[in-house]
Amino acid sequence: MLDLQGYGPRLIEGAGVTVQLAVLSLLLAIVLGLFTATAKMSRHWLLHRVATVYTTLIRGVPDLVLMMLLFYGGQIGVNAISDILYDHYDIDIYINFNAFAAGVLTIGFIFGAYMGETFRGAFMAVDNGQIEAGKAYGMSSALVFRRIRFPQMMRHALPGLSNNWMVLLKTTALVSVIGLTDMVRVAAEASRATHEPFVFLIPVAVAYLLIASVSEWIFARLQKRYDIGFGEH
Amino acid sequence: MPDISAWFNDLLSGNLIFTPTTLGYYWDGLVTTTQLVFLSLVIGLVLAVPLAILRSSKRKWISLPVYLYTYVFRGTPLLVQLYIIYYGVVFFDGIQESVFWPIFREAFYPALIAFTLNTAAYTTEIFRGAIKATAKGEIEAARAYGMSQSLMMRRIIIPSAFRRALPAYGNEVIFMLHASAIASVVTLMDLTGAARYVYSRFYTPFEPFLFVALIYLCLTFAILFFFRFLEKKLLAHLKPQTP
Prior knowledge:
The structure holds two protein chains of two kinds.
Chain A: H1 8-41, H2 45-60, H3 63-89, H4 99-125, H5 128-136, H6 141-171, H7 183-194, H8 197-226
Helix pairs in contact in A: 1-2, 1-4, 1-7, 2-4, 3-4, 4-6, 5-6, 6-8, 7-8
Chain B: H1 2-12, H2 20-55, H3 60-75, H4 78-88, H5 101-105, H6 108-132, H7 136-144, H8 149-179, H9 191-202, H10 206-234
Helix pairs in contact in B: 2-3, 2-6, 2-9, 3-6, 4-6, 6-8, 7-8, 8-10, 9-10
């Protein structure tokens, strides 16, 4: 059957890296997205401006360029900080800015901008009367957020979120360029070494389709959960 | 003219990273990126229109193969598609002996093929959505006039679907511009490739990558304004009427 010429275990390891990277970036993107959406809806002009500049800049520049900027520039930035710490406070630390961190930070940072747009639309779709009712019950605004705004917002945000996740998953392939051994990098290396590109790259393509199908199923279940009380379920 | 070039040299003197030579690299990169994106978009668009019509056919055996194509190309990373075509092109029998080999040996054509197939898949789905969203009344009116299926397609469905697809297609164009950055991975000297080259020569990440980021940003805004202008012109009938 499929002869992976000993690259099998490394490919599976690479798939693990891909999934870890994607999930961690998604979490970072959701957190950043919530902040961005809140900042964009805020009445404070500075918050609003900062969030707008962030989403505009991120969506105007290719992911790969941002990733290289952060990966190659990040180490220099980190070194500068540790130099300052050493010179002024006599703290001697060396922080290695590794490819995994650069990958998670960049992808999370990029998709935070997209998530911000998704969440903003979803927050605005929550009926104002619901929030007023919560306040009338004497809930604090944190409690209103946790019990009323967030769950109802999620119902509207899930389709967009699932869309962003699918794009994010495919974007993780770019980390192979900055030296992270995800499954694309392993497959590309194996293709170059054995001159059999199809044997390695087609299973990787299938793996992406598989991950996408599984996550589609998970999102369908989540949607069902957040739709409780609405629609015909 | 000599004034300008003197001013330019003055501006660049003492700057080790923005020299006339490196600016030349960026310019060549800009040309490559533009060529690659423009050609793949045009060919992709030409492919996508018939594919979208097939995709919206009621007959399963016509629509299913197109769906499979769009599913695979939209579900896998463009980088993987590019690798498959770039490394796989030598495996076509006789290609190395054929007259086309000097063309396909360059990274440009495998990249162009990968980008074209990718954007055609996305554009097909955009058009299919637009075709599906045609108002029932328009189709009924066309039928009542005795139009054949193909005439209705040509005169009623496609023109209005084009307009409806415009905003989504604008996004696809921007997506393609950004995706083209991965051409630099297969040794192509596009804008990102130029930045990577300058980075590797001078070991300064900020100047080259921020500079090309700025160029991409300008290109993105140019595309955005172009599509906004087109929408204003072509979708004027959908805007709320103001007396």
